[in-house]
Design a protein that fits this description.
Elements: E1 3-5, E2 13-16, E3 23-26, E4 30-35, E5 38-44, E6 52-53, E7 68-72
Length: 79
């Protein structure tokens, strides 16, 4: 639906959830999110490139902050 968990070694950027106001991601990119001593990595593959609330993909208990992730098409997509 929004992508899948991924390896931190695949991440193209690291985002500090506590200081971020929003995140821009290209469809297909992997991002590592950090909140205090917790982290997880997610590969975004979003149909229609709709915005995703981080809490929809974050592991339970990761954060209670609502953070929008905006998805743009990659160069190989036609839409």
């Amino acid at each position: 639906m929004y992508g899948a968990m991924s390896s931190p070694s695949q991440a193209v950027k690291v985002v500090d959830v506590e200081s971020a106001k929003f995140v821009n991601v290209v469809c297909g990119e992997t991002v590592t999110f950090r909140s205090g001593d917790k982290s997880f990595s997610w590969k975004f593959e979003v149909l229609n490139h709709q915005a995703v609330d981080l809490m929809a993909v974050a592991p339970k208990g990761f954060t209670n902050k609502s953070l929008k992730v905006y998805i743009t098409p990659n160069l190989h997509e036609s839409n």
